[in-house]
Specification:
179 residues; 0% strand; rod-shaped; mainly alpha
Length: 179
């Protein structure tokens, strides 16, 4: 019995989704174990063929030779069982590794979702703050053009942002009322 070991080539969509897979070695420990199992199966078929031949077809038909063939077959079966155990251990280790990767991916996806929700919350807070009506928006202060014309340089120098300009206008207004 021959097992097809040719792996299908990845589709363009698979290679675009996971480019790291191309850098990974294509021969895994499980593949090596599987090829050893295939070799042992071939040896078993050879021994079975020699045991099944009888009469004139097999020149070495002595009981000692057949006993040696049985011992060879038994040792091959023991090695086959050890390889089978190793294959299952490798599979279990691979399953653990995949589960760890899945857990990390889930954790990262959850963290990303939390960050997205935090961004949405902050954007809503910014929007609500910008829409907030305050008393300062309705204070009667001198118009901007009059402020620019009559205010001393110390009030007009920090006019980088609208907030700074408003603070300077309020300070100037307080100074004017106190004087």
């Amino acid at each position: 019995m021959e097992i097809d070991t040719a792996s299908p080539s990845p589709s363009p969509s698979q290679s675009a989704v996971s480019p790291q897979v191309e850098n990974v070695s294509t021969v895994t420990p499980m593949d090596a174990t599987a090829s050893q199992i295939r070799a042992l199966c071939d040896e078993i078929e050879s021994v079975a063929g020699r045991l099944s031949t009888t009469g004139d077809a097999c020149p070495d038909n002595s009981p000692e030779a057949q006993e040696q063939l049985v011992r060879n077959a038994a040792s091959i079966f023991v090695r086959l069982r050890l390889l089978n155990r190793k294959l299952h251990e490798d599979k279990a280790a691979l399953t653990l590794s995949v589960n760890d990767m899945k857990q990390r991916t889930d954790d990262l996806a959850l963290a990303l979702e939390n960050k997205k929700r935090e961004i949405l919350y902050l954007e809503k807070e910014i929007e609500s703050t910008e829409k907030l009506e305050t008393i300062y928006q309705h204070i009667e202060i001198i118009p901007m053009d009059e402020f620019q014309a009559s205010a001393p340089e110390e009030y007009r120098q920090d006019s980088d942002s609208p907030h700074d300009v408003m603070l300077n206008r309020l300070r100037y207004e307080i100074d004017q009322r106190d004087a």
